[in-house]
What we know:
225 residues, 30% helix
Amino acid sequence: MSIATTSATDDPFGAIGLARQQAQSKRNDLGLDDFFKLMITQLKNQDPMQPMENGEFLSQIAQFGTVSGIDKLNKTFEALSANLTSGQAIQAGNLIGREVLVPGGVAPLTPGNAVRGVATLDASAADLVLHIYNGAGALVRDLHLGGHKAGDVQFSWDGMTTAGTYAPAGTYLIQAEALSGEKAHAIDTQVYARVDSVNLGDQGGLTLDLAGLGTVPFSAVREIH
């Protein structure tokens, strides 16, 4: 008596279980032909006293087509999104070593370099004042920039303290204040920082590693220099 056997070469996919997975996948997919077979069966077995209306029949076909179309559209958008993200990552890679303007008042001071940024006035001010604090929260300098109209005002701090000495390298907090008569109110600031590296996150979002500031989303960048 002989026993018939099937070699791995006769069914290489079966040896690793791929054929069964494909079959399972096919059994889980409901194509348009399957839908019509089910519909014909439903018509044959419907209650003759309460037959399916033509409108209901066409509605079910339309719903099937809509769901199928949406699924294909979603897959197309996913592929498009992946391509756009890859292209964006390549372009963002050119930012390494350049300066970008990002929101916030925290800025790094490095030897031989000034801290630069932008203060945005929502109205004219008789005086624009920058209060600069070190990492311990101590005030190291007040910069009076004079009167300005509403809009963006460029500023620069050379690292000089009120005592006339240079502040040590580190991270400093810059708070801007607009003075109009006896009234004063805080205004938004943005600072320039050097891009050290570019990262592509798990969710597809780009982030920038800025010198002395850490990571910020690429979408936060206001200007590139």
